[in-house]
Every structure is written in C-alpha cells, then in structure tokens.
Amino acid sequence: MRLAFCGNDNASAYNISAGVLRNVCFVDALNLVPHVFLLFITFPILFIGWGSQSSKVQIHHNTWLHFPGHNLRWILTFTLLFVHVCEIAEGIVSDTQMKSRHLHLFLPAIMGFVAATVSIVYYHNIETSNFPKLLLALFLYWIMAFVTKTIKLVRYCQDGVPFSQLRFCITGIMVILYGLLMAVEINVIRVRRYVFFMNPQKVKPPEDLQDLGVRFLQPFVNLLSKATYWWMNTLIISAHKKPVDLKAIGKLPIAMRALTNYVCLKEAYEEQKKKVADQPNRSPSIWLAMYSAFGRPILLSSTFRYLADLLGFAGPLCISGIVQGFQNTTNNTNTTEKLKDPSNSYLSSEEFLRNVYVLAVLLFLALILQRTFLQASYYVTTETGINLRGALLAMIYNKILRLSTSNLSMGEMTLGQINNLVAIETNQLMWFLFLCPNLWAMPVQIIMGVILLYNLLGVSALVGAAVIVLLAPIQYFIATKLAEAQKSTLDYSTERLKKTNEILKGIKLLKLYAWEHIFCTSVEETRMKELTSLKTFALHTSLSIFMNAAIPIAAVLATFVTYAYTNDKPLQPAQAFASLSLFHILVTPLFLLSTVVRFAVKAIVSVQKLNEFLLSDEIGDDSWRGGDSSVAYESCKKHTGLVTNGYFSWGSGLATLSNINIRIPTGQMTMIVGQVGCGKSSLLLAILGEMQTLEGKVHWSNVNETEPSFEASRSRNRYSVAYAAQKPWLLNATVEENIIFGSPFNKQRYKAVTDACSLQPDIDLLPFGDQTEIGERGINLSGGQRQRICVARALYQNTNIVFLDDPFSALDIHLSDHLMQEGILKFLQEDKRTLVLVTHKLQYLPHADWIIAMKDGMVLREGTLKDIQNKDVELYEHWKTLMNRQDQELEKDMDADQTTLERKTLRRAMYPRESKSQLEDEDEEEEEEEDEDDNMSTVLRLRTKMPWRTCWRYLTSGGFFLLFLMIFSKLLKHSVIVAIDYWLATWTSMDNENELRNAADAKNTKTYHVAVFSILSGAGIVLCLITSLTVEWMGLTAAKNLHHNLLNKIILGPIRFFDMTPLGLILNRFSADTNIIDQHIPPTLESLTRSTLLCLSAIGMISYATPWFLVALVPLGIAFYFIQKYFRVASKDLQELDDSTQLPLLCHFSETAEGLTTIRAFRHEARFKQRMLELTDTNNIAYLFLSAANRWLEVRTDYLGACIVLTAAVTSITEGPNSGLVGLGLLYALTITNYLNWVVRNLADLEVQMGAVKKVHSFLNMESENYDGYLDSSQVPKDWPQEGEIKIENLCVRYENNLKPVLKHVKAYIKPGQKVGICGRTGSGKSSLSLAFFRMVDIFDGRIVIDGIDISKLPLHTLRSRLSIILQDPILFSGSIRFNLDPECKCTDDRLWEALEIAQLKNMVKSLPGGLDAMVTEGGENFSVGQRQLFCLARAFVRKSSILIMDEATASIDMATENILQKVVMTAFADRTVVTIAHRVSHILDANIVIVLSEGSLVECDTASNLLLKEDGLFTTLVKTHK
Predict the structure, then answer these.
(1) 720: closest CA among 847, 627, 620?
(2) Most buried residue, 75, 795, 1274, 1403, by CB count within 10 Å?
(3) Do β-strands 1489-1494 and 1497-1502 pair in parallel, antiparallel, or remain unpaired?
C-alpha cells in the first residue's frame, strides 16, 4: 500500500476549488506548521544550553525559580499530552477503517505530541537557568497553534460535523488548552516584565534555597519531579557509595520547622481559648485548633485520595471492556466489516472506546495517574502529620518550662506522664492524621464499588457485598483483642527485664554463691507468662491475616454460586473478571477501616490528655526578678534580695513557709542552717519564685548599679541565679558542657573551677577526659562526683548571685574543706558574688557574713554569728556541741576516704573500655572476615547484601518441621488460589461455547462447575488459616528458643565477659532485640512471603496465557532489581537515622522536666527551647526523608506495575487463546501493582530486623564456664570442706588465655580456723586470689587444695555452693528478706533469725511489717549501705561453710557497721577459716597470718607482729602510709 499524506483512494482529496480552507487535508497540513516551527527554534537552543551546562559544574538548586503560573502550566501541558494521545489513537483507529493510509489523520497529532513534550522540557531548562526572554518562542508557538486549531474547529462547524463525533470534541478541547497556555504566557510577561517593559523585575529564589543546608527539595521542584520524587535520586544513589548521615539530609525547610508550625498552632489554640473564655465549664478545642492550622493540606490530601479512588475503578471497567471486545472479535472473525468512505471518516466516542487497544492504553494511563495521586495523598498527609507533631512537641515543651513546681512535686504531673505525652500521645495524633483521609474516602469507595458490582451482576452482587460487610466487624473485634494482648505482653516483658537487670547487676555474687540457676528459673517463669500472652497475640494476628485473605474468596464464592442459580444467562468472562477485580478493591478499605477506627479512638483519648496538660497550673509571673519593684533605694544598695512578710505554699493551700522576713546582703555569704525538713531548700525555691506566694513579697535589687565597678557587673548575666540543687542534676552531655552550661568557654576560669571542686582526678579517670558523655546515656558517676559537677556549674556561671543547696551532703570531709576554701571563700568571694548556702556542716559557720537559722518553716534567727552569740546564747551553745561532735566524727572518718573509693569504682567501670570497643567491633563484623581487605568495595558489598545466613539461622531456630510446614502450606495455598481463578476462566469460557449447544448439557456442566469451584474455594479458605497460623507458630518457637539459649549462655558466661561488656549492651539484647524477634519479624516474614508468592503466581499465570509476555518481562525485571537494591540500602540508613535522632529528643524532654528549677533559676529557658526545636527538626527531617524514600520506591514500583499491565494487555489481545484467560491475565497483572512495593519494603524491614537476630547470635558464640569437674558431685563428701584447711601450691592465675598472669607462683598454707589477712597495693592481685578460690579465673598452673581435694577437679556448682564470700559492694535482690538470705529455701526460720541476730539486724527486721517476709526493693534501696552489708554477713553465716572470704567487705561502710562486722567475724566465725582481703591494713593487724602481695607475687607471709619488725618490709611501708 502506497503512502500518501491525504491517502490515494479518494480523487477529491487534493481538490481546492471550494477554497483552500474548505479542504480537510490542507487544514490538517496547516496544523503541522506551528509544531515544526517550535522544534526548529528550540532544538538549537536546547543543544547549545545543554552543551554549555554539562561543561559547567552542576547548577546548585538556588537557581530554581518558578515563573508565575508554574503548576498550572505543568497541569495544562499534561492534559494537552493526554488529548494528543487520544487524537493519535483516534486518527489511527479511523485510518485502519480506510482502504489506504491517510497520514493526515494522525501525523499532525504525533508532531503535536512531540512539540508539547519539547515545550515543557524547554520551559524547564529556561526556568532553571532563569532566562525568561527565551519564553517568547513558546509564546509564539501557543498563538500559532491556537490559530490553526481554531481554523480547523470553524471548518468542522461549517461542515456541520455533529458534537458526538470524537474528532470535533478533541479539536474543541485543544483550542481551549492552547488558549489557556497562551494566557499563562501572557501572565508571565505581565509579572516578570521581561519584554515590552522598560524595567524587568528582579526576583530572588526562596530563602530555603539560598541556604545550602536545605536538602529536602520536595516543596521547590517542578510538578513532574514532585510527583515522581525524581530529586531523591541523588540521595538514594549516593547512599550506595557512603552511608546517609545527618549532613547528607541537611536541614528542614522553614515552612516545616517546628517553630513555624508551633506559631500556627499556638495562634489557633489561643483563638479557641478566647472563644471559651466566658464559659468556665468548656475547655478550648484542640481539634478545631488543629483544623484551622493544618486543615488545608488535609483537604488537599483528601482530594488526591478521592481522585485516586475513582481512577481505581478504571481497572475493572477496562478489563470488562477488553474481555468483551476480545470475545466479540473472536466471534466476529467470520463476518467482515465494510470499509468506510474516506470522505466521512469520523468516529463516535462509543466506537472509539470499543477498540481493545485503546482500552489497554487508557488502562495504563489511568493506573499511572491513580498511583501518582495516591502517593501524593500519602505524602501530603505524612508531611502534615510531621508538621503537627513538631508543633505539638513545641507546645508541650513550652508548657513544661512554665509548669508550676508544685505540680511536679505533688505528683499531679509525673515525669512518666510527660514522657508519655511526648513519646506516645503526639505519635498517636500523627498516625491518626496519616490515616485521616481514609475516614471519608473509604465509604465513598465502598458505595461506588457496590453500585458497579450491582450493574455487572445484579442482585447476586449484593450477596457478596453482604458477606464482606458482615465479616468486617469481626476484624474490628480482632484488632481490639490484639491491642489488649500487646499490653499484657508489655507488662510481662517489663517484669522480665527487671529480673534480668538484677541478675546482670549481681552476676558476680550469683556465680560466687552458685545461685545462677535459681534466678535463671525465675526469669524463665516470667518469660513463659510473656510467651503465653504472645501466643494470644500471635493467634489474633494470624486470624487477622486469615480474615484478610479469606473474605474475598468467600464473597466471590457466594456471589458466583448465587448468580449461577438465579440467572438464566450464563456468566460471561467480562462480568466474572471485572467483578473479581472489584471485590479485590472492596476488601482493602474494609480491612483498613477497623485500623482507622481504632486509631481515631486512640486519638480522641490523646487529645483529652493533651488538653488536661495544657490547662494545668503554671508558675507565677516572676517580674520581680527583673528588679522593677519599688523598694527604698538605700536597702537596694546593700541587699540583693528581700522577703517581706512571706507566706509560701507548695500548691496545697497550706503554708509550708510562714512569716518569712529576711534580707540577703549583696556580695557576701549568707548561710541557711536548721534541722532536716525545716524548710531550708523551700526558702531558696521561694526566693527563686518556684513556690506559690500566698501573701507577702520577694524583692530583688536592681543589680548593684551604684557601685564603681558598674561595667563589670553589667557584663554578668543579670537576674540569672547560679543554682546547684540538693539532688544533683546532669545533662546528657560531656563533662565540659555540664560545667559550662551554655556560657562562653574560658580556659583559665574552667581550670580554677575544676580545681576548686577537685574534679581533675575524676576527669583524668574518664576515657575521654572532660569530653566523656555523662548523664543517663553516658557513664554513671557516683553521687559525690555528680554533686561536685553541679557545684562547678554554679561557680563557673558569670552571675551575681549563687545559690548552693547543701553542696557538701555527698562529699567527704577533705573535699568539703577544699571546696569551702578554694571554691567558696576564694573563688566566689574574690568575685564579690552574692552567695546563699544551705548546709548541715556547722563548722563552716564562722566563715559566714550573715546567718539565717530556720525551724519548722519559720525563721528562728537572722544576723551575724556575733549577733546570735550575744542574743541567743542557747542556740549558740547548741551549735557548739554539734560542731564538736562533727569534729570527733571527722577524726574517726579521716581514714575512711570516700573519694578514693568513688574513684576506684569509676576506674573499675572504666578499665575494660578498650576491650569493650573490641567486642562491639566483633559484633558488627561477623563471618565476613574471611577476606580481610577492608576497602570501600567490600563495605559496599556488605551494605547491599541481604543477611541470608542470619535469615537461615532464624528460620531454623524455629525447628525444621515447622519451617517445612510453613513453606509447604504457603505454596499449596497459592496454588489453590490460582486454581480457583483458572477454574473460573475455563467455566466462563466454556459457558459461552455451551450457549450454542443444547440446554440439557448446560445444566449438568453448570452443577459440575459450581461444585468444583466451591470445593476449591473451601480448600483455599482452610489453607489461608493454616498458613497464617504456621508462620506465627514458627516465629513464636524461634523467639522462645533464641531467648532461652541467650539467657543460658549469658548466665553461664565467664565473669570476664561481664567486666568487658557494658551492662546496657547485654540488656539491649534482652529488651529491644528480643522484642523485635518476638513481635516484629513474624508479621514481616508473613507479609514478605505472601506478596512475593502473589507476584510470582501472577507472573506465572500471565506467562501461561501469553508466553510473549516473558520477553517484555526481562527489562522490567532488571529495573525492579536495581530499584530494590538502591532503596534497601538508603532505607536502612534513614531508618537508623530516624531511630537514633528520636532518643536524644525524648531524653531532652525528661531531662528538662527533672531540672526545671535549675533551668529557670539560670534563666536558660530560651537556650533549652532552641535545643528542643533543633532536636525535633533533626528527628523530623530524618522521618520526612524516610517517608519520601518510601514514596520514591512506591511510585517506581507502581509505574513498573502499570507497564506490566500494559504489556500483559497488549500481548494477550494479540496472542490470547480465549477470553477467559485474557481476563485472568489482566486481573493478575492488576494485583501485581499492589504487591510489588510490599515485596521491597518488607525486604528492607526484614533486613533491619535481622540485625537483632545477628546481635543475639554474636552472644551465642561466646565460650561458657566449664561447669563439669573430673569428680562427680556424689563423690564429694556431703560436709566438705569440714576443717577449712587450705594449701596453695605454686598458683598461677590469669583472666584469659591471651592475657598476662595476675598471680605468679603463689605458695601458702592456711591451717583450719585461722584468720588470714591479705594485703598489697592496688592491682597487686588480692581480689584475683579471692576469685581463684571459686575458679572464677583461669588457674593455668599450680593448684589450690581444700581439705585434701584439689578444687580444679570439682564441678563448679559444688565448689561454689560450699564456700562463702562477702563482697565489697553489698548486693540485695528484690524479693523478701528470707529470699535474700536463703534463695534455695533450705534453712529453717530459726536459723535465719540466728543469722540476723549475729548480724545485729534482728530487732530491725522484727519491726518491719511481715518480718522475714518483708519486701526488699530493687538493689536494696530501702536499707542503708551499712544495713545491706550486714545482711550480706547474715547471708554468709546462713551458709554453714567452714571457709569465709571477705573481699574488702568494709570498704564502703561506716565505722559503726564496720565494728559490728569485725566483732562478728571474731565470735560467730571463731571456728571457721576467714580470709580477709583488706583495703585498709589496720584491719588485719590482729590476724593469725598476713600475706603480702606485690604485682602478683607473694613477697611476705608471717604474723603481723613479725612483719612489722622488718623495717624495710612492704607491710611496714603499707602500715605507715595508711596511718
């Protein structure tokens, strides 16, 4: 067939006798002109522009400037492209009905499509280079196109072409579109004045884009990039090269920052407050405030959602049309259509839409659009949710800063409630907002679906719909049960963690007493309860999954069986597959509805809690701290503060402090003294304005402005008070940041302060000096160290006024004196700062310039020490006696140096640091160490590789039988589901052929088909239940086994492991990682296998129907592989960023609530607010990028899905065997689009979650202690060791095979019943020797023989259960006193009372409620340290062992308790062998034998008196230095 522009089957085609414009062909040719013009002009410009751009550095995004009407232009251009596609299709379809090719029908349309594409590319390039003059070319193009199209339209009108003809409609729409685009162009000229005006307008890009730190570009890119998240490509690809960090994601754009949104929400909330101001019983509505602040984006998102849902119905309609069309063409192959007359080549819309290829393209476009709108809706809600969360967090924080202290102290608002508001309630509201559009989109979707079904199948459709609707409430019921099960699981796991934590803290004691198994069993019991509630959780989860899979099968079954028996006409493939597709659409909203309703209920509760919090009491306005009170000028000069006639309360209405009249002299030291609980601290807080003032006034002077050093005092922070609270409060920050506390760093001043507080030795012990993190997340310091840091903070601040609340309480005498002399008298007095000091140490009274004595909330006396001596002799004498008593205590206390102890404890916590980091590294790299080239490429390979080995370990830990069952049932289930649909395809196709045969056969076949269909559907439903149960069951078994193995491995681990591994790290395995294994991996695994198998079965089914589809699948498969590969890496990084930025934010909130008084005294609210906003923004940007990455993935997988649908449609139309299989192929292609992105997201989630399994496994590979001995426990005499004779023969000990020995060739002989003292300098191996008796360390040479048995031959449990030890740190466990003394429950009560009597605790225990069954709180906090040590003594006595070892047992207790201990050892343990390891040599002077160690070797061994005769002996030296 020869080609010709106007066709060569019509002679009149080139006839222009009636005028040029009357010729159709000429008008079509005229339409080519503008398009060709545009291409000629723009191509050179684009090539030159691109060439020069590529040579330049990549343009930074600050040149992105949108011209006016930017979005409108993109929308119009896309519409134009769509209309062009319709025009091309219309032309081609018309052309197929001609005798020869008529190029003029579609060639101009194709050129128009190319031109429209070029126009938008051209526009984008002009916009990025900001060169508007070049837009003139586009302006001319729009004018020309508008004119030529108008000519064509007029010509149609003259010819009387009816409106129903498609070509007329298309031309009309194009005229409108070109006209609108022309208007947009004119508007750009009007605003930017780049042509026809003298002075063009200068424009700057938005503020965010000028800031190079902003990397989140979604609000600033063009519409296409917004819809496809194209701008994310750079980040996601770069994640492959190096991990995404906070620098890579940059800052939040201004509009999304917490501050911006806080201002919006605050204004809206204040507006609500005003409305209800005159109605006292109504509270302002947070809902309305949220709506007025964030209503617009929610409406926008809902609009997108509606559009997406409506476009979703295009799928079933197009399937129906395609199958119907396919059926008609196969039936009508024998009747040939007559070809149309070229002069009348117009198509009506109906004829056009009957063309199957047209429908396939329409389906493709509808899918693309639907998915784009859906992702846009998701994105807008996510962004709004994040904005809302930022605003709420800022509101809560501002409220916390203004909360009245009495609220916190009286327990109306606990820290827990505040933490819940921050961590839970704000997130609930954010999630509600995410799901919000579903609330009103779902009903519409359901109604539309039912209407369409009714149209297709009539009444029988309503039966299916009824099945779905009736089963939906069950989903809601299951969902509520799930929430309950989760709550009870949480309670048990908290209890289990508490027990595990206790075990880990006291692991040394448990091992030494051989009690590990008792405590391990207790944890296992709690774990069993937790597993029981996890079982109900798993059961309900699997039911929920089962309902989701079974409902559509049941609905389809009900519908088609009803249809088969109520309708005479057989079921058509078009009806069957369109209705199947509709059922799939219907199930999703019904399944989601239960979730949404649950979240809505939670959100309502959260809002109530928020409202209560926002309306709670605030602190009074402290304007008096601004110094604006009118007090006589004279008194201001001399006094910083005055309180006149003050009555103050803690919010109960009762005055805690009454009738307070005091003065605080400026530049001097005021001391406040009095008994415990007489209101000293309250007085400080009252002056700071933290208490409620019932009456009276607090006046502050207007900072010494009359003094000559006026400038000097102005440089200080006015009105801020450096305050050190009684309970030390530290930030989670470095030591240096804690001391500087936001002031500028001054090296000299910093050094002076740390010296005054004697912090330097402590700082030197820390691994990174003063750059070490301390606080909750950092290293735990002792009370004294914390207190000194707080005092240092107060001293360092450059303020006029310093308040110290009992700074000496946790310090020993040396430190107190040093702090008083260096810090207070020297440092503060030199600076002429006003100091108010609360203290119990009366020996410092002579240093005070002014004294305030308090009693029972009133001021007893006020004045200088001299005044009080003269006026109140009695009080003065009372003080003197107290001072003398304190001095005596001092002398006693002189050698009990608490500080050295604290430092020792700190050093102990620090020394294993190096090995810790080693362990963590081993944690990270596991088996990949075979090839040790640790360069970039291997790291990248590890980052992109799925942890398959860990997955396999996880799956097998659930047992092979369950694994096999799961795989088998999954495969079977999916085969049955495919079989159901395949049977439907054959049934409907057969019916069509049967129509042509007789009616009798038809009835039999119908019954047969329905029966098979019902059986298959039933099997499918049962299999759905089985698979969902097996996955959960397997997950549970795996969780159970992993936790059991982990617990046993840890408990039997060597003591060195606990010294080296931080407690937090081990606890993490039991908390976070176990939680992931328990609750998160099974559903992820289920979802992953389900979506993968669905996609595979769909691809298999389409390929079976049309094998050609496989060819098209190859490029799509490659694209999919790369998308998932890149996404997984980036998603993992962003997930980690989101998690790691959340913790500091939550910590900052709880930290602020704890240190409120300090922050307010320092006047640092603004700084803390700023920090909170920064932390919130950091967390929000990480979350925003994470959700944008999810959208990036989903858009791409959705578009891939659309391509699969298009290829499946086209191949099946051309190649399809029968209409049933065509419908089946299309149905499956549509399901792929829903599941592709789930495959990738579940893969990414699983990869992150498998990290937990990997961490747990890294502990499972640890060596355990060897518990078996050569001797059987039955071979050891029952009462061994009876005598208590100890022979140490040539003993060599080390902690691990690869470490140096800590004891070398020690020889000693201890007779039964002897009292032995072991001493030596720190690190000489004293404690190692005590551990050697219990085989806690590796004895690699020599031996210890006790009562004739070599201890290395004994089973560990036997050995340890027969010896007793008292450790330096007294450890008690939560439980009863009885449990603490005798956890094995072997002893009688009399024996226990005897032990308590010996330890002089009997009377104290008797006075407790419950006696022996009285409860001990965690760590024994309800007893003093001395009492705890005595309990440990009683515990050692209860175990009737003839050998007792005391490891520095008196190091951390007071004199009185120590004397008791010494006495008991001498009397109650008179007949036992006692080995005492002494930290003070004075304790072992009366021992029978003294062993002196130095650097692991025994240097002296004799009685103390003999050793003291050696002048140069080590023992003599030790005794002298310690005296």
Answers:
(1) 627
(2) 795
(3) antiparallel
